[in-house]
Design goal:
The longest helix has 20 residues. α7 links the parallel β6 and β7. The C terminus is likely disordered. The protein has twelve helices and ten strands. It is an alpha/beta fold. It is 40% helix and 18% strand. It has two domains: 142 residues, HUPs (Rossmann fold), CATH 3.40.50; 162 residues, 3-Layer(aba) Sandwich (Rossmann fold), CATH 3.40.50.
Length: 305
């Protein structure tokens, strides 16, 4: 199986060190490289200010020195020595570096934010997922073994890339894989009857899953679960009940204006972050492995610590 490099966004937080630990062990297991990246604000409002380049370089070096001092005890020295620091917003810098090194995964440490903080744009993860074409993995808590991978899918175009990614990462970690689809009830519209009753609607939806989606799963023995309810609440409950270590979801690849409107299932899951979360954009190409997932799944579980 061929794996592309992994880019890890870091700052001076404990969550960043946890994300690095996850990414480093995953990269070791996948036989690929890991690249640490930090974005720092460009304090100059005038692009061509006198002595601007010298000042900007000093900003970069200051940020590098501060990060290295904080992360020295938690991050391997050889990896920290190659830390990339650039001026600009985190989403832009992360995407630039990912393109430079050919990365197909960005890893960030998940942080808990207040509702006000999230509304004011206090979550880098949300900012990145709104624009990136590269899968984003947001870790939560201390790095630990990945033994169970849950992929939540619907019948949209986001499902197949999410399934392919979930199978790939379950194989990498030697983890059990479960596929979940949540069927939400039809909206109630005053004075307008729905075209189907609830029983018919659920039956038709499950038939569509059986015909068009479940056959796309290549890994033998994957449990396929259908639940009825509201998507976010049902997914959160399934993560807790099944004790999933990694949740995989698809991002529908909406336009810029639509992505800016917080409230999608993916963004709400990022806000709650029930476990480590892999968000796969619809635009991310499905991965075709050299060996079938059933071969990779036989590998032992990796303990990320």
């Amino acid at each position: 199986m061929s794996w592309e490099p992994i880019v890890v966004g870091v700052d001076a937080s404990p969550e960043a060190a946890q994300a690095v630990a996850f990414a480093v062990r995953a990269a070791e297991r996948a036989g690929t490289s890991c690249h640490l990246v930090h974005a720092t604000r460009d304090a100059l409002a005038v692009p061509e200010a006198p002595e601007g380049n010298r000042y900007r370089q000093a900003l970069v070096e200051q940020a590098r020195a501060q990060l290295m001092a904080v992360l020295r005890e938690a991050v391997p020295a050889q990896l920290l020595a190659q830390l990339v620091v650039r001026l600009g917003s985190a989403p832009r810098v992360l995407e630039e570096v990912a393109a430079d090194v050919g990365a197909k995964l960005i890893v960030l440490g998940g942080k808990q934010h207040s509702a006000l903080g999230r509304w004011l744009g206090g979550s880098t993860s949300l900012d990145v997922v709104r624009t990136t074409d590269v899968p984003l993995l947001v870790t939560t808590g201390p790095a630990s073994a990945v033994r169970r991978v849950l992929v939540a899918v619907d019948v949209s175009g986001a499902a197949r890339p999410a399934l392919a990614a979930a199978e790939r990462y379950a194989a990498l970690f030697g983890a059990e894989l479960r596929a979940l689809s949540v069927l939400e009830p039809l909206p109630v519209i005053p004075e307008v009857a729905p075209p189907y009753d609830t029983t018919q609607y659920y039956a038709m939806s499950e038939q569509l899953l059986a015909q068009d989606l479940w056959p796309a799963i290549r890994t033998p023995g994957v449990e396929k679960i259908v639940r009825h309810g509201m998507a976010v609440e049902t997914i959160l409950r399934e993560v807790t009940d099944w004790r999933a270590d990694l949740l995989v979801v698809g991002s529908h690849g909406k336009g810029w204006a639509e992505r800016m409107l917080v409230g999608s299932v993916t963004e709400r899951l990022l806000n709650h972050l029930p476990t480590s979360l892999l968000v796969v954009p619809t635009r991310a190409a499905a991965v075709v492995t050299d060996r079938g997932p059933e071969v990779e799944a036989a590998q032992p579980t990796v303990a990320i610590a």
